[in-house]
Fold this sequence. Notes:
The chain has 69 residues and is mostly beta strands. The protein has a domain at 23-62. The protein is built from no helices and two strands. The protein has strands at residues 21-42, 45-67. It has a two-stranded antiparallel ribbon with strand order 1-2.
Amino acid sequence: xxxxxxxxxxxxxxxxxxxxxxxxxxxxxxxxxxxxxxxxxxxxxxxxxxxxxxxxxxxxxxxxxxxxx
Length: 69
């Protein structure tokens, strides 16, 4: 007959262990660059100047603390 391993009685098993909560956030970072040619008048002359527009955005959504358990 195989040996019995040490068994823990049900009365010694804790009912509700403490659960640690962690903040849960989703983060999306976007970067977009756009080059546009703009006409500028200097001394009665039209000059085309390239202009770069950089847009950076960060969206963050936090749904609240969740616990794994």
